[in-house]
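User: Hi! I'm working on a homework problem where we have to compare a predicted structure to a textbook description. Could you give me the structure for the chain below?
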Amino acid sequence: MSDLTSGVLSILHSHFLVDADVLAGDPTLEDIEFDSLAIVEFATAVEKRFHIPVDEDELTVDHTISQVIEILGQKLAKV
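Assistant: Happy to help. Predicted structure tokens:
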């Protein structure tokens, strides 16, 4: 598991109290009950941990966790 993957899963588990078993199923952000405010809070946590800017319009409730990690990985590769 990459540092990015484990970091994202850690943020979702510790900051948003998403059960690890739920995350293993690759749910969408909507499946884990994220709304626009939760996406902004998640983006802020990612920015603080990985030092990459994340605009709230880059992530939607329709993205799966693996898609979120892919998007963030692309951004991290550019830094």
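For your comparison, note the following. The domain at 3-78 is CATH 1.10.1200.10 (Non-ribosomal Peptide Synthetase Peptidyl Carrier Protein; Chain A). The mean pLDDT is 93. Good luck with the assignment!
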